[in-house]
UniProtKB/TrEMBL annotation:
Belongs to the class-II aminoacyl-tRNA synthetase family. It is an enzyme of class 6 (ligase). HAMAP family: His_tRNA_synth (MF_00127). It comes from Protea cynaroides. Its EC number is 6.1.1.21. Gene3D superfamilies: Anticodon-binding domain, Bira Bifunctional Protein, Domain 2. The keyword Nucleotide-binding applies. InterPro entries: aa-tRNA-synth_II, aa-tRNA-synth_II/BPL/LPL, Anticodon-bd, Anticodon-bd_dom_sf, His-tRNA-ligase, HisRS-like_core, HisRS/HisZ. One of its GO terms (biological process) is histidyl-tRNA aminoacylation. This is histidine--tRNA ligase. The keyword Endoplasmic reticulum does not apply.
């Protein structure tokens, strides 16, 4: 950090300019710099430093922190006036300021300077244009949830860390933003919403009537390796159905995602859903009498199949206690891409085939068959899924998963609750925006204000405020010109905010209870009585 020496400050009493000559870094997140000057003034100028001292006391930083730091800096003379030695101990200040003794406190200014203006890596700001896009996306999430009769919920972003710690060795566990709070509790920023949902369902107990159809849009945090559409913070739209054991629930959920994608202009040739069931793997494990408690772990290992070499997968499965022949069968079955073939391998007796057949038959009735395909390699990376699992993917294969979900009938009991059948999905806000960009489907979301109201001279500012208020009461959006600006400026601004009408408040019209109107798209101009303006 370098000290800026270019700024001269006018001494309030002596009419002398002072030049800052040293910089002190305070241990605050904003990297606040204290700037102090080489000449002590005769007026009490300690407000900033005493503020800093008070703040540091609050933060538990020793009172002499500032003075020690000041002393360790070289107070190089940087103005015509020689530098003095200073003490900024709070006790020195408490004496009421002034020049008592050899040591006197220098004037101090607190300025914000040279912070990194980028948000932390992997996180985003939402300036207005980004915010408009986000609002538009969330509006569509909400609209589709409403169409399907879901109620909105939310949970805290900060949760107990234990909620996200599962034993199966999931990647998500290593990506946790977790820490100990001031009360020595282990907490974490939520990496997903499902555990919070489960917690709330347990908490509500019998007070809620099933089935629950809940949706949420919430920010999630994962310390991920960043790729296109994958960030360290993202928003997820979740829809979950609690209390329905039938596959009708999964079919309804996929239907809601398809409805959403269609609203955005995305078709079945852009996006597809790979569907499978974890019961496929379960049936293989049961053939080899592998205990159920290994199931989650096996799924997590198998989910890595596209990321690490198959030999490594085999080794991991072996060390989890899965015998060679079972590993062979598991890996074989993952390559199955049709339901008929699956039925050949597993037989038709088990739940896996029956569930999947029912889902594909329902998809026909819902009208989204062309969007879905069976793919046994879809397992998903979260330990809690128990049945149907699905993932949305872009058919060009350029992006990571668009969304994903499945059935998790046994999650609640892992938190000490009674199990209730449940399924749902998470749909991120980042990949879909990348896809919309790819397809040229991003909407034009420029700012639009219906009216711009401008007084023609400064005395009419109040009259213009009255006009703006009347229009706003009628539900019209108004940009009121708040400063005395030339008309050229007003027209420029009107164009920038896409205003529909310019309303001019001029003296002679105002005397007659009228205002001037210009329709900006056509150029049409007229006068209108204030009362008739709507
Ligand atoms: P997930 O597959 O981990 O599932 O995440 C769901 C979706 O969230 C992903 O498909 C992707 O769109 C988005 N997503 C995840 N991580 C990131 C990231 N780092 N950056 C950007 N987007 C991301 C779950 O989270 C489950 N809890 C979903 C669920 C709800 N299952 C049942 N109910």
């Amino acid at each position: 950090m370098t000290a800026s020496t270019s700024l001269f400050i006018l001494h309030p009493r002596l009419n002398l300019y002072y030049k800052p000559c040293t910089t002190i870094l305070f241990p605050s997140r904003l990297n606040i710099y204290l700037r102090h000057f080489s000449q002590a003034p005769t007026v009490p100028l300690f407000s900033s430093i005493s503020f800093a001292l008070r703040r540091n006391r609050r933060l538990g930083i020793p009172g002499n922190f500032i003075s020690q730091n000041l002393r360790t800096h070289s107070f190089s003379p940087c103005s015509a006036i020689p530098a003095q030695s200073v003490s900024l101990n709070s006790s020195d200040n408490d004496g009421g300021g002034g020049r008592s003794g050899a040591l006197s406190s220098p004037p101090v200014m607190e300025v914000l300077e040279k912070i990194d203006v980028n948000p932390p890596k992997g996180t985003r700001d939402f300036p207005p244009e980004e915010m408009r896009l986000r609002n538009w996306l969330f509006h569509n999430f909400r609209e589709v949830s409403r169409l399907f009769g879901f109620e909105e919920v939310d949970y805290p972003v900060l949760e107990s860390e234990a909620l996200f710690i599962r034993k199966a060795g999931e990647e998500i566990r290593d990506q946790l933003y977790s820490f100990e709070d001031r009360g020595n509790r282990r907490v974490a920023l939520r990496p997903e919403l499902t555990p919070s949902l489960a917690r709330l369902v347990i908490q509500k107990g019998k007070s809620v009537s099933l089935p629950l159809k809940w949706f949420a849009i919430g920010q999630c945090w994962r310390y991920e390796r960043m790729t296109r559409g994958r960030r360290r913070e993202h928003y997820q739209w979740n829809m979950d159905i609690i209390g329905v054991p039938e596959v009708t629930a999964e079919a309804e959920l996929i239907s809601s995602i398809v409805t959403f994608l269609k609203r955005l202009g995305i078709t079945a040739s852009d996006v597809g859903f790979k569907v499978s069931s974890r019961k496929v793997l379960q049936e293989v494990l049961r053939r080899y009498s592998i205990p159920d408690n290994l199931f989650g772990q096996v799924c997590i290992i198998i989910d890595k199949i596209e990321k690490i070499p198959q030999d490594e997968i085999k080794r991991e499965l072996n060390s989890a206690g899965i015998a060679e022949d079972a590993v062979f069968d598991l890996l074989q079955i993952l390559s199955v891409k049709s339901l008929d073939k699956l039925e050949e391998v597993l037989g038709s007796a088990g739940d896996a085939v029956a569930d999947l057949k029912q889902l594909f038959s329902l998809a026909e009735k819902f009208g989204y068959s062309e969007w879905i395909q069976f793919d046994a390699s879809i397992v998903r990376g979260l330990a809690y899924y128990t049945g149907i699992v699905f993932e949305g993917f872009d058919r060009e294969g350029k992006l990571r998963a668009i969304c994903g979900g499945g059935r998790y009938d046994r999650l609640l009991s892992t938190f000490g609750g009674n199990d209730i059948p449940a399924c749902g999905f998470g749909f991120g806000d980042a990949v879909i925006v990348e896809l919309l960009k790819e397809k040229g489907l991003l909407p034009d979301l420029s700012l639009q204000v219906q009216n711009i109201v401008c007084p023609l001279d400064q005395e009419l500012q109040g009259a213009a405020a009255t006009v703006a208020t009347i229009l706003r009461q009628k539900g019209q959006s108004v940009d009121l010109v708040l400063q005395n600006k030339p008309l050229k400026w007003v027209f420029k601004r009107a164009a920038r905010i896409n205003a529909g009408r310019l309303i001019l408040v001029g003296n002679s019209e105002w005397q007659r209870g009228m205002v001037g109107v210009k329709i900006l798209s056509t150029g049409e101009q007229y006068e209108i009585k204030l009362n008739d303006l709507d």
